[in-house]
């Protein structure tokens, strides 16, 4: 498959978790081939059902997470229930706990989040300024790509074209920046602020954004002029727009470069290949890694079997969503500063990562 292409290094060189764990990259080749069924049989199954917060219906978090839950439930014989959510920030608040809170009773056991949101939560900055949260990581999974979507009929060719016209400074374009308090909103606000784009920002889910972009009845335009979404590729509801409304993705390479250089959190400049959405050419954008996170005190059984299923049943996940093809146990351990769950670390050691 034509994959998104990295244009800048994903992370700085130097001390990595791989070197801390004490294994060389060559040892990673000893990992057993993904796709085998259950793996090690003497690891106990979880003692009780679990929950996994995913993301917006239609988004990659949701489809990927639901597929993973089905497989984990199958191999353990214990239900891991997927729950829709508003994404990264919502997932962190439902999975993590405040520093000093030793209770393992959380609304969810597992979830996805972006690396920048994880960093802010772990250090108690940005939207998590009330105090740091505590949680562990099971893996770095695939990367999210920022989509700035405009209808094919839009005159906007680049991000700054969303600014008001000079002869009508008070007529602002309306742009959806994702659900309130979501990881998408954090990144969308950062991009618009950095590029100094003056628009009316509204909070909508992915499905609401797609629907609002499409004109209704005799209207010439939808109720929004563009929407920003951070997700895997392809994001199905966005892809489906190409056969109805028709859309373009705005190139945000310049602002992506500025953010990647000044913000810590895993941001990199990347590109979305034209084949993903039937585009005329590749589009430069901002990418950010995703983490699979766990609540404090998650049982070793749930952690071990989730990681084991993620990689050993990878071939079964790929048909559910192509992003599963991006899974690589060698990069999965790169979740600093969030510590790996002890059972997840044990799985990587057992498999020579």
Automatic annotation (TrEMBL):
Query: Which first-to-last residue range defines the signal peptide?
Result: none
For this protein, the record's InterPro entries field holds: TAT_signal (IPR006311), TRAP_TAXI (IPR011852)
Matches recorded under Pfam families: NMT1_3
Tell me the superkingdom of the source: Bacteria
NCBIfam families (UniProt xref): TRAP_TAXI
**Known PANTHER family for this protein?**
SLL1037 PROTEIN
Q: What is this protein called?
A: TRAP transporter TAXI family solute receptor
